[in-house]
């Protein structure tokens, strides 16, 4: 199991005034608000001067007014994870948790992320890019059932369809007709569903997700209390292999700071990379806190460490 170095700082004053960015107008608003409340309470409990800010426009106004020194980004999806926020803050010289413009923008787009992984020789299920108006039946026939259909740039299992055969494709076709963005169709992997949190240069212990239903949908993620989270999800060589793969996938996509890499273990093809989340959930059901706890890092300490990454290493010597 990987070791995590001790926190570099003990004085909350080193962080200055911290904006906890949450909410926003997107489809993941409620999850983000829930995550943000947890982060805000944890930072304040550690003595950090932290204030909530709802959405990027409100944050931009506050940054222009000079009200914050750094940002803890827990705005899931949309401008919180697509590089817009990161570019804005970079232009103003305000540090922000998580990945920068490149890693955020790339991994928000599942199709382009998979293209990068494929070019780097990293394993990911076969897929088809579906621009607006694409023929879903033809794409599914080319890939072979069963398949998943999902928006290329959404999260939290929003708009995801599990399609076992052609007769079950109708809801996805109806959704596609009304959806403005690109869709991703990928071969469904049959096997264990796993996720690996990343904290700095360390892969946290894997988590194997066992939903009570047939698959890990929005309800299983955020509502149900009967989803099982087994941590570590693997042992021995398999755990070492998935940790190395997750770190390689994270770095190939230009990510840094913290995040979460979702992986499936196919019964025949082994580990298959699914996607990266650069602002993972921090709710009571969320996975990165569960994995960090296995290394003795509680929720408040995790928030501290994520925020600590916004301070340059040389600060520790001051």
From TrEMBL:
* Keyword Manganese applies: yes
Q: Which residues form a coiled coil?
A: none
Cell compartments where the protein resides: Cytoplasm
Q: Which family does it belong to?
A: Belongs to the D-alanine--D-alanine ligase family.
Q: What class of enzyme is it?
A: ligase
According to the UniProt entry, what is the EC number of this protein? 6.3.2.4
Q: What is the lineage of its organism?
A: Bacteria, Pseudomonadati, Pseudomonadota, Gammaproteobacteria, Lysobacterales
The name on file for this protein is D-alanine--D-alanine ligase
* GO cellular component terms listed in the entry, alphabetical order: cytosol
As cofactor, the record names:
Mg(2+); Mn(2+)
């Amino acid at each position: 199991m990987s070791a995590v170095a001790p926190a570099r700082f003990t004085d909350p004053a080193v962080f200055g005034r911290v904006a906890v960015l949450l909410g926003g107008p997107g489809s993941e608003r409620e999850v983000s608000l829930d995550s943000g409340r947890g982060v805000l309470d944890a930072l304040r409990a550690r003595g950090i001067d932290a204030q909530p800010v709802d959405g990027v426009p409100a944050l931009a106004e506050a940054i222009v007014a000079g009200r914050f020194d750094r940002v803890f980004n827990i705005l899931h999806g949309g401008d919180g994870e697509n590089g817009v926020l990161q570019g804005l803050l970079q232009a103003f010289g305000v540090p922000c948790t998580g990945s920068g413009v490149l890693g955020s923008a790339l991994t928000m787009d599942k199709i382009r992320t998979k293209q990068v992984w494929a070019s780097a020789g990293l394993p990911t299920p076969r897929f088809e890019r579906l621009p607006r108006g694409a023929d879903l039946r033809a794409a599914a026939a080319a890939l072979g059932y069963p398949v998943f259909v999902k928006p290329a740039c959404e999260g939290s299992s929003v708009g995801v369809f599990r399609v076992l055969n052609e007769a079950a494709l109708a809801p996805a076709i109806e959704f596609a007709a009304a959806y403005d963005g690109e869709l991703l169709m990928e071969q469904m992997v049959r096997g264990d569903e796993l996720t690996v949190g990343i904290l700095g240069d360390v892969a946290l212990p894997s988590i194997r997700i066992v939903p009570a239903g047939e698959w890990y949908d929005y309800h299983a993620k955020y509502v149900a209390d009967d989803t099982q989270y087994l941590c570590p999800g693997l042992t021995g060589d398999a755990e070492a292999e998935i940790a190395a793969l997750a770190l390689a996938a994270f770095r190939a996509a230009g990510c840094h700071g913290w995040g979460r890499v979702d992986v499936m273990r196919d019964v025949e093809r082994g580990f298959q990379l699914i996607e990266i989340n650069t602002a993972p959930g921090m709710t009571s059901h969320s996975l990165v806190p569960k994995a960090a706890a296995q290394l003795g890092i509680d929720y408040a300490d995790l928030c501290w460490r994520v925020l600590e990454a916004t301070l340059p290493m040389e600060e520790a010597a001051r």
